[in-house]
Amino acid sequence: MLVFDFLQLECLRSILFLIVFTLLLMKEEKNKRIVEASLYAVAKGNLRHRSLENLSKKYDSIMLLQLGSAPMVIVSSAKIAQQVLKIHDLYCCTRPASPRPNSDHWKEMHKVFISELLSMKRVQSFAYARETEVDKLITSLSQALSKLVNLNEKIFALVDGIIGTVAFGKIYGTDQFKDQVFPNVLGEAMNMLFDGYLQMVLDQHLDHARPKPEQEDFVDFLIRLMKDESNSFKVSENCVKVMLFDAFIGGIVTTSTTILWAMSELIKNPRVMNKVQAEIRNCIGKKAKVEGKDVSKLKYLKMVVKETFRLHPPVPILPPREAMWEFKVGEFDILPKTRILVNVWAIGRDPNGWENPNEFYPERFDGSRIDFRGPDFNLLSFGAGRQICPGLDMGATNVEFTLANMLYLFHWELPNDMKREDISMEEEGGLACQRRTPLWLVPISNRSQLE
Ligand code: HEM
Question: Alpha-carbon distance 351 to 244, whole Å?
Answer without folding.
Answer: 39
